Amino acid sequence: QSEISTKISLAGKKVLITAGPTYEPLDPVRFIGNHSTGKMGFALAERMAAHGAQVELVTGPTHLQLTNSNIHITRVLSAQQMFEASARIFPQSDITVLAAAVADYRPAEIADQKIKKKEDSFTLNLVKNVDIAATLGKQKQPGQIMVGFALETENEESNAQEKLRKKNLDMIVLNSLNDKGAGFGHDTNKISVIQKDGNLQRFDLKSKTAAAEDITNLIIDLLVEKAA
Ligand code: CTP
Ligand code: CA
After folding, report:
1. CA within 13 Å, CB half, 153
2. Which of 84, 89, 97, 132 is the best mutation target for the ligand 1 pocket, counting ligand atoms within 8 Å of the beta carbon and taking the most?
3. In-domain check, residue 130
4. Largest CB tally within 10 Å, which of 102, 114, 212, 226?
């Protein structure tokens, strides 16, 4: 991986990264989840730590392991737990990257006992989860940088731009599912990055590690701009 530089350009920077899926319990043995593996968030944690950052990684359930000792990991299950852990860390973070696939809804009630099979059909009542990105975006201070992700199946670029605005992000990474070998569970990703000023950069299909390095370099550029 000779193309990956190891410049210590994030030395002294505190980074908060959310990663993985969330599991929303509905009874003691069941949950609603999604297919996120956490690979992109973990790759970002590794690359940013390699650049000298002190990384706080808040992750939903995943089997991934970390190699860099500059990464402190907090493991959570639900969106609410991910929010609480992230909100504690956020005020001290110079850079926040929201890479988690947070469940938008959770079961309205968690049954104390395993739900028994009865009728032929069963309706589950769901309520909206806290939007971690939008909530932290409202608390963002001028010196803080916030980066989000978006996955869209239609009007990709305009929807991503709208999310960037609504959540008060500095940059949003659009994951394209259109190409074979990109997205959930794969080791590769095809990303586009949109900046607050509307500037859009499309990247080729590449490994999640290489995509994480591209994102890290764009974040370093943002830091340099802010300092100027
Ligand atoms: N996000 C979050 N908390 C949530 C939902 C999303 O922090 N409850 C973050 C994601 O980590 C991502 C960004 O918001 O960085 C966009 O997530 P996405 O699911 O694409 O957008 P939503 O706002 O949930 O809109 P929708 O799913 O309806 O497209
Ligand atoms: Ca969502």
Report:
1. 0
2. 132
3. yes
4. 212
pTM above 0.80, yes or no: yes
CA of 150 to the centre of ligand 1 (A): 7
Q: How far apart are CA 32 and CA 11, in angstroms?
A: 39
pLDDT digits 0-9 by tens, 47-95: 999 999 999 999 999 999 998 999 999 999 999 999 999 999 999 999 9
Ligand 2 centroid–CA 151 distance in Å is: 8
**What is the predicted ipTM?**
0.99
Among 36, 127, 149, say which to mutate for ligand 1: greatest number of ligand atoms within 8 Å of CB. 149
Ligand at minimal distance from the CA of 149 is 1
**Domain total for the chain?**
1
CA distances (Å), origin 129, targets 55, 87, 191? 25, 15, 26
Domain with 180, as residue range(s), is 14-103+126-227
Residue 174 lies inside a defined structural domain of this protein: yes
d(CA 13, CA 47): 13
- 149-191 pLDDT, tens digit per residue, is 999 888 999 999 999 999 999 999 999 875 565 666 678 889 9
Look at residue 203 and tell me if it is in a domain: yes
- Domain assignment present for residue 96? The answer is yes
- Specify the residue with its C-alpha closest to ligand 1, atom 27: 104
Residues with Cβ < 8 Å from 140, sequence gap 6 or more? 146, 168
Residue having the nearest C-alpha atom to atom 21 of ligand 1: 150
Q: Tell me the ligand closest to 151's alpha carbon.
A: 1
